[in-house]
């Protein structure tokens, strides 16, 4: 088995719906995302001969995803009223709406699915909400 690992970070705001504690309030994190690729065999020919994939392609793909979330307000679909959404929009805040509760676990799965859709042989994604707390998704 051969593996690659790369990481990227993004800053964003969120709150946890139906949470009883301080995380129900709007707050921010610098999330750190670590992604892993895994293959049994290296590529046999071409520019990527003897590589899993080019590090440039891998890190570029992860960075493009973290860039989509960077400095956004991550909002679970249906968790804010249309009035609130309209106010935020009027104020020029940029939202990134997702169909799941914005937990580190779900974000790890979101990154995993996006990387897999790009055709990368992703095996695991870790999302750190703080330096000490990390959620892991692997399939
Ligand atoms: N399993 C999970 N638990 C929690 C998640 C999560 O995504 N998965 N998220 C949160 C909140 O987003 C929260 O911001 C994290 O809070 P907390 O652990 O309290 O982190 P802090 O470092 O800010 O806490 P200290 O008070 O500084 O110890 C909650 N749980
Ligand atoms: Zn949080």
From TrEMBL:
Organism of provenance: Adlercreutzia faecimuris
Cofactor: Zn(2+)
SUPFAM superfamilies given in the database record: Tetrahydrobiopterin biosynthesis enzymes-like
Broad EC category: lyase
Cofactor-binding details, from the entry: Binds 1 zinc ion per subunit.
Domain of life: Bacteria
Reactions catalysed: 7,8-dihydroneopterin 3'-triphosphate + H2O = 6-carboxy-5,6,7,8-tetrahydropterin + triphosphate + acetaldehyde + 2 H(+)
E.C. number(s) listed in UniProt: 4.-.-.-
Keyword Metal-binding: yes
InterPro entries documented for this protein: 6-PTP_synth/QueD, 6-PTP_synth/QueD_sf
Protein name as catalogued: 6-carboxy-5,6,7,8-tetrahydropterin synthase
Keyword list, A-Z: Lyase, Metal-binding, Queuosine biosynthesis, Zinc
One Pfam family per UniProt: PTPS
Pathway recorded for this protein: Purine metabolism; 7-cyano-7-deazaguanine biosynthesis
Family: Belongs to the PTPS family. QueD subfamily.
